[in-house]
Amino acid sequence: MTTDMFITGEWGSVAMRLHLCARTGDRIATIDTVRGGGVRDCTDFEAAFFAAAGPWFQTYGPLPVILAGMIGSNIGWRDSGYAPCPAGTAELTGQLTSFTVRGVTINLSPGLKCRNMFGLPDVVRGEEMQVFGWLNASPCEDDERRLVCLPGRHVKWMVTRGQQIVSFFTGMNGEMEDILLAHSLLGRGVVREGFSQPDFDAGLTAVRDDATLSLGHALFATRSRLVLGDHDAGGAASFLSGLLVGADIRDALNACRSRGLLESPVVVMGAGQAATLYADGLAAFGQTMTAISDDTLAIHGLAALLERQTAFHRM
Predict the structure, then answer these.
(1) DSSP states of 182-200
(2) 96 half-sphere exposure, CB direction, 13 A CA radius
(3) Omega of the bond prior to 86 within 30 degrees of 0, cis?
(4) Of 171, 228, 276, 300, which residue is least crowded by CB atoms under 10 Å?
(5) Contact of 112 with 150, CB cutoff 8 Å
(6) What is the number of other CB atoms lying within 10 angstroms of the CB of residue 39?
(7) Alpha carbons 45 and 106: distance in angstroms, whole number
(8) Tens digit of pLDDT for each residue in 6-36?
(9) Judging by beta carbons within 10 Å of its beta carbon (0-12, 13-18, 19+), is residue 35 exposed, middle or buried?
(10) Contact between residue 240 and residue 177 where contact means Cβ atoms under 8 Å apart
(11) Are 129 and 67 in contact (CB under 8 A)?
């Protein structure tokens, strides 16, 4: 049985992760991983890529490369555009942006675009590969709809059906928290070091227990609780985080429930504190959920897309 070597990568706004992979039959092994800076601060993508992956090419020769994330955006190496939903790896076959540099073929995956359940346009670039990796490994029935939550700076709520992502919508919790603490009155006197679980729980509980409490009417409590001594400077940021996460979960569940999208447990995909907070938050709202923390999902999604792309060009 032969072993095929290839490189996958998630190259986002703030970080690059490249993986040297080997496929033997249906098994994919990660041989090595290197990290680097993100697209936002990169001035020479070719130089940055070969500085990171160059030793692999010296050892193994030219290898096929597939990358996802902001590297394929209009501020990246090439603009790979957006593919419309519904989409899976089968629908993206033939839509990769491919070019050759220093004898190496680089494939950039497109992002996805949709009109979400609210009738608004939305886009995603990078996170979808985790979902594709999971879908390709899951025994999904063609008509089974599931809700997937990908916590992060921008929280993605994705609706899947069979092997496809049907639509998605985005919460900007992480970025909103940064903006509010850095540029509004709520951040005055707040210490952002550490995390207070009781203060986070207080924020989440406030929006969970009162369906009439909008996020806009809750935010100022971050300031008033600090002034009145209900939490200290170190707990204020955690309380604000609890408000934002709680409101995001509440609103997402209400929107999806009204559209019959909560027949199966919500899948929380990711690792780290954000994923834990969302998993615990969903449980606090009484929502059944499944947590998946496999950090190789994006690798498997990209590998499946690369395999289909290679077969497509052999036709």
Answers:
(1) HHSGGGTT---SS--HHHH
(2) 28
(3) yes
(4) 228
(5) no
(6) 21
(7) 12
(8) 999 999 999 999 999 999 888 899 999 999 9
(9) exposed
(10) yes
(11) no
What are 219's two structure tokens?
A: 């935010």
- Give DSSP secondary structure letters for 37-49: E-GGG-S-HHHHH
Choose among 1, 8, 133, 129: nearest CA to 63.
Answer: 8
Span 92-142, pLDDT tens digits:
988 999 999 999 999 999 999 999 999 999 999 999 999 999 998 876 666
Instruction: Name the DSSP letter for residue 119.
Output: S
Alpha helix locations (H) across the chain?
Answer: 45-60, 89-92, 128-137, 173-183, 197-209, 215-218, 221-228, 236-257, 273-284, 297-314
Helix axes 236-257, 173-183, angle to 10 degrees: 150
- Hunting for tokens 């947590």 — which residue is that? 291
Q: What is the pTM of this model?
A: 0.93
User: What are the tokens at 133?
Assistant: 């990796």
| DSSP class per residue in 9-20 | EEE-SSEEEEEE
Q: Measure the CA–CA gap between 138 and 133, rounded to whole angstroms.
A: 9
- The answer for 94, left when phi > 0, alpha when psi is -120 to 50, beta otherwise, is left
